[in-house]
Amino acid sequence: MQKVSISVPLRLHFNLIAMHQCSFRCNGGFGMAVDTGFKLIGKKSSIIEFKPASQELRPTLDRIVIKLEQIRKDLKLPHGLEACLYNAPLPHIGLGSGTAITLAAIEALLIINRYDYTSQFLQVLSGRGGTSGVGLHSYFTGGFVFDTGIQSENKPHLPSALVEPNKIPTLLFQKSYPFGDIVFLYPSCHLFSSSTPLSL
Predict the structure, then answer these.
(1) Is the pTM of this model over 0.70?
(2) Is 200 among the domain residues?
(3) Disulfide: which of 66, 121, 135, 150 matches 96 by Cβ 3.0-4.6 Å?
């Protein structure tokens, strides 16, 4: 395949659910996929590169290029990837852009090389999901996702970027949109005065 286009879902991550000392699991979380019109367009190349890219994203993309080069070497892939990002979000604004770009770039590299893969294989190659699987699972399923975290090994709690996962966090629940009405009320005083007490 000469060219591939991937619509890249981003995510909102609302919470980590197990930050306490626990003998069987830690972390885990829930969140939802969001469609921002972000796309990765990739084409066959002799090398691996992103172009053009904003200066803010450059450190993230440089790390992803190193990962892609290692994957290409390990899997003995004949072709590289030239990737262009459209409507890419800035890093570190809470949308999981690092995980999303990593997954999309690996997927594009495998598609360009006609390399068969599963979502779980792609997750393992990405090295993401060391704390929560919200970014991983929402990339593949969309909607609202809830995962149970990772197995507790009596290690300190760390952010995902500092943890190499041994196993992908288990997806407990996924629900596609729309799954009901979402209402934002302000001021909240009106909600309480008009809706309580709840009848049982």
Answers:
(1) yes
(2) no
(3) 135
